[in-house]
Amino acid sequence: MSRWLRRGGKALCAPLLAACLALSAPATAARLGDAAVTVSGEGATITIGADGAGRVSAFALSGPSRLAIDLDGMTAQGGSTAGNGLVTRVRTAQFDADTARVVLDLASPARITASSLSGGKLRLTLAPATEDVFAKLVAAGRTTLVAATVPAPEKVEKPVVASAQITPAPAPSKPVVKPAPAAPVKVAAAAPSPAPAAAPPPQRPRVAGRLPVVVIDAGHGGKDVGTISVLGEKKYEKDVVLAIAKAIKKELDASGRVKAILTRDDDTYLRHRDRFGVARQNNASLFISVHADSAPVPNASGATVYTLSETASDAEAARLAAKENRSDIIAGVDLAVETNEVSDILIDLAQRETMNTSAEFAAILQREMRQDIKVRSQFHRFAGFLVLKAPDVPSVLLETGYLSNEEDSKFLFSASGQQRIAKAVRRAVEAHFLRRLAQR
Fold it and tell me: What is the DSSP annotation of 46-79?
């Protein structure tokens, strides 16, 4: 992709990104329709074709002021439409495999005062808001505008109707089921109401029939050996992190709750963009890059997790990010010349929420790892790692310990140490997706 971007310049970034996201969406999902903005006094009404949409939710973004609306079960071609009044522009893109996102660029702070989804149209009413009110909206995060109960009966109706058509014939057989006479009464009472039919979908995985994908990236590889352990020659970071990544995959596969994919399963070197490219190509819901650290002082030890930020949280985070980011130069690719392109891609509709989700997972990982693994006192840090810059995949870089520390090195190179790390990551991944499911 980078070569294409260089040929066409920055103008190609957004269209290519939208195209990649659109291709990742399921072919059976409903397509987002056109958007129109009408002005009414100081307010505005936005109408969007959304036939077949599930739950509709929204959140506010500042700097500049925007409102983002996510529509479950939808795909978006990607593009933008000129606005009017409060809304200067309406932008659409594919957020993940089954969610279309609409972003309203605002002329001034505004809030959604009413929303409805009927006749295949989503209608949003906007009114001006003060800076303080808008700041509270940003802090509040995501809110549901239209519950999933609106489209759910349409999706469930077909099998339900089919059952209802078959039911009249065997109806006499129902009373024959004597062990539970009360059960038919409950079923009969629930059948006319669409609410019970709509209840099951929120308890299922977000993408029906598909487990969440977790990509585990073993850092370095090939000619890029990474850090060399104090234990002696040929005790390389590239080898120990591959062993840990494989242990994590084995644990996640055993859980049966996610689909785990390795970026590499042998001594192969991958460029940063190829690593997170694996995550994007597989519609990953989580990306975990596994590394081992080193320090000039031998007493530094313990695990640390990093999430993306253009501003490092401390000098150590900045040092480590600089070291890791330079590794692509080893393969003859100087990423310094691509900084602007990567930055352009980062200006994506999903970026801010992706970083928040990454931070949420980092907090869960800290809770699970500290139970039986040594972690740094400042476990969660921020740095500008290139490998974390997939704009639409929540990502963390896990420094499992210090190869410059003898105790950490022995732990990391041991099968028992690798197993303990893998089990902690498994618990964190399971807890993360349970939490995400509960939030929907």
Answer: EEEE-TT---EEEEEETTTTEEEEEEETEE---E
